[in-house]
Structures are given as structure tokens and as C-alpha cells.
Amino acid sequence: MESALAISQIVFYWVFSLTIIILLSFRIIIMYRLVKILKTLQAIAGDIRDVSDEAKERIKEISEKLSLLPIFSFFMKKEKEKGSSKRKVEKDK
What we know:
Layout: H1 2-68, H2 70-92
């Protein structure tokens, strides 16, 4: 009777230990994959930031080139004059 109880305890401890090892292995694998995914997302975010910076520069260049055209320069000058008149009023105060 005691040998059956001892064998059942040994089997229980082995099964429990293997279960813990398997669960920890799965957790390590999941964490490894999660880290890879996060690194990829970080790289994608950096690429998007770079592209948006380039787009801002190009939009600025295009607006400067358009301001040189006679048709668009009329509208661009009004915006600049409004801004400069506000600055003059603020300086006077």
C-alpha cells in the first residue's frame, strides 16, 4: 500500500514538473515572439516618422514654388501680410 502511494506521489511530481517546464517553455516562446513583433512595430513607426518628415519638407518646397507663380503669389502675400500686421500690433503693445 505504501509503495503504491509512493509511486503515485512520484508520478504526480514528475507530471507536475513536466507541466511547469512545458508552460514555461511556451511562455518563453511567446515572449520571444512578442519582442520580435514589438521591434518590427518600432521599425515601422520609425519609417513612418521619416516618411512624414520628408512629406512635410516636400509640401513646404511645393508651397514655396507655388508662391513664385503670379496667380498663387497674390494669395500667398495676403497670408504673409496678415501675419506681419499681427506682429506689428503685438510689438506696439
